[in-house]
Design a protein that fits this description.
Elements lengths: L4 H10 L11 E4 L5 E8 L2 E8 L19 H9 L16
Antiparallel strand pairs: 1-2, 2-3
Length: 96
């Protein structure tokens, strides 16, 4: 996890084939799943957020391609250490 703004934005552009200036959040996790970096772009520039776990691992849900789209809720669960694949939201009754 040595890459910073330029390295991660190049990775997004060249390997993931996405535009790093789109405003989407791009999350990267190291092989040991103990460090996470999140890159995104705002109107004024790039933002880079990092978290290193002192104990345990991130429970990262991956597809065969190594990429996965996450909702904001899924991202919050991942950051908080909750396994996203086991999380399921039930439909709630809403009165008229």
């Amino acid at each position: 996890m040595r890459k910073s703004f330029r390295g991660l934005s190049a990775l997004v552009r060249n390997q993931l084939k996405h535009d790093p200036l789109s405003g989407q959040y791009f999350v990267f996790v190291n092989r040991r799943k103990t460090q996470m970096k999140m890159l995104y772009f705002t109107a004024t520039g790039y933002c880079l957020w990092a978290k290193r776990l002192e104990q345990g691992q991130f429970r990262v849900p991956l597809s065969a391609s190594g990429q996965r789209a996450l909702t904001l809720t899924d991202l919050q669960l991942l950051i908080d250490g909750i396994e996203v694949q086991k999380y399921r939201q039930f439909k709630r009754f809403r009165g008229v």
